[in-house]
Amino acid sequence: MAKSLGRLFRAFQRLGSLTPAKTHLSPPSTGVPEGTFVRTVVELPSLFCLKPRDFSLPNSSWGPEMMRLYEYYNSQCEVETEGGGKQEGPWRRLPSYNRLFKYAPGGLYLSKIIQSKARLFTRNMRAPGAAFEYVAFANIEEQKCVCIFQAGHLLEGPPGHVHGGAIATMIDTVTGTHATLLHGPVMTANLNINYRSPIPLGSTVLLESTHDKREGRKIFMSCKMTSSDGSKVHSETTVLFLSISVSYLLR
Amino acid sequence: MAKSLGRLFRAFQRLGSLTPAKTHLSPPSTGVPEGTFVRTVVELPSLFCLKPRDFSLPNSSWGPEMMRLYEYYNSQCEVETEGGGKQEGPWRRLPSYNRLFKYAPGGLYLSKIIQSKARLFTRNMRAPGAAFEYVAFANIEEQKCVCIFQAGHLLEGPPGHVHGGAIATMIDTVTGTHATLLHGPVMTANLNINYRSPIPLGSTVLLESTHDKREGRKIFMSCKMTSSDGSKVHSETTVLFLSISVSYLLR
């Protein structure tokens, strides 16, 4: 089962449809995989179901700064050839859904009701602009990943500013996505955040994830969060991930 | 203004109505304070407004484990005297609201619309059981703070499990609340989390916050997150807070 999912994961990556978060596994290309986990059903949004919402696409809540940065990176996803044609550029936009697993067996406590209603934490609200608005772009050749994040009014911590936990959530999400793209499924083992300056609600900020090194199962990443023009540092973080087999979570 | 808010904060603490989070400032006892921040209006939920919802009270979504732990700590908030009367016990339940500031001026980016709609990140959903269900209790004499946390289905990270960012959010919230109770308003400067084992969605877990030391403006806290019976460690964290003046955020 784990191997099967792993193969599908890599196949999905090869297709260029890069998985948007470490919690997302790729939809299989030939149907629901057989395995010992009877209750595991993988949703197949792009093949057999109604098209799910891709949260990484612009919506009416995106402000000018969010749109400016989005357009900057998006324009580098496809470039013109000398003959006037189009070809893949150095960057890829990473699509982002609020779930892929319909039923994810998760252990002792997980009831069927919880399973069926589960949603990715960063994409659990449909109201545009209310909470986490973000889009990530990856540059596989240069092993870079950036994320443009617009912080909604429901993320308040200190009065008028973004909650430290919401900042941690974005850092974990972006570095985890990046680590997964490079090394397959991972789990966070350590998150060490230095908060440098508070982020006013409504701001658009930039996260830059860097792959530092890999030692066996350990993957070392770092992340810098700055104002959209890069002039102000909001946080600096190191993250340690452990490479895992998908079966670890589906036990 | 800052001094005025500081006095009100301490007065509120003396009254025993302990502030539930570092982002919450106490309502003044005599009306809206005058000051230079014309746009700052402090909501007065318990005195002049409709009673706001206290999210720390049980609701229909709380499972048996959440209720058992709640009743254990709640029973120690008021104890019987020898004469059969009642008196304050060693623990206090910390009330928890989704906002106190109606308009929190927060800097360049904060529009009036965002200000008026802002809600505390951990209390931004009204649907019982969907996201963060938690209640914190403090024992001031022993400088302890515990929090019972039931993780809802909208907090998913790895399939069937709680997102690392949601775990970070609870740790930041509980240790921040605890630090604020002991030392007044604080901001998170460093959050260093070691994730030991994943938390299945729907679980009830226990957070124990410890005050380690204070050095000038630096407040060192730690936090252990375990299964509800304490047998399994989910995470171990150190947190550094900086003591701040409220005016820092209202500039």
What's this, in brief?
2 copies of one chain form a homodimer. By secondary structure, chain A is of the alpha+beta class. The first copy, chain A, is 22% helix and 29% strand.
Model description:
- The structure is a homodimer of 251-residue chains.
- The N terminus of chain A is likely disordered.
- Chain A has a seven-stranded antiparallel sheet with strand order 4-6-7-9-10-11-8.
- The first copy, chain A, has five helices and eleven strands, in the order αβαββββαββαββββα.
- With 251 residues, the first copy, chain A, is α+β, with helices and mostly antiparallel strands.
- At the A-B interface, α3, α4 and β8 of A face α3, α4 and β8 of B.
- β8 of chain A pairs antiparallel with β8 of chain B.
Can you lay out the helices and strands and say which pair or pack?
The structure is a homodimer.
Chain A: H1 2-14, E1 41-42, H2 64-74, E2 78-80, E3 86-88, E4 92-94, E5 101-103, H3 112-117, E6 132-139, E7 144-151, H4 164-183, E8 186-195, E9 204-215, E10 218-227, E11 233-243, H5 247-250
Antiparallel strand pairs in A: 1-5, 2-3, 4-6, 6-7, 7-9, 8-11, 9-10, 10-11
